[in-house]
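Narrative of accomplishments. A recurring question from our advisory board has been how the design workflow behaves on a single, concrete structure rather than in aggregate. To address it, we present the structure tokens for one chain from the evaluation set, followed by the sequence designed for it. No filtering or post-editing was applied between the two.
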């Protein structure tokens, strides 16, 4: 689908990769998290008996928390629930 703006034509897409980040037309971060956490890689590392507990905790902080917090400044806040 094409859109027009100031005599310019743009193609409308479901998602695109911009500066290494996947942007969707649904404002969803799920695909970005999936692409950063390759299936099985992290599981294999964290279940290894060759690594110390402290090293596994540091890996968890770097991989998981870094991924989750990467785009936190752009999250929209919505109120769901009643008072």
């Amino acid at each position: 689908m094409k859109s027009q703006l100031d005599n310019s034509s743009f193609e409308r897409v479901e998602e695109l990769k911009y500066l290494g980040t996947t942007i969707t037309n649904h404002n969803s971060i799920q695909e970005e998290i999936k692409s950063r956490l390759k299936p099985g890689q992290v599981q294999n590392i964290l279940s290894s008996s060759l690594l110390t507990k402290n090293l596994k905790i540091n890996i968890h902080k770097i991989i998981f928390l870094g991924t989750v917090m990467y785009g936190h400044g752009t999250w929209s806040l919505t109120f769901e629930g009643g008072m």
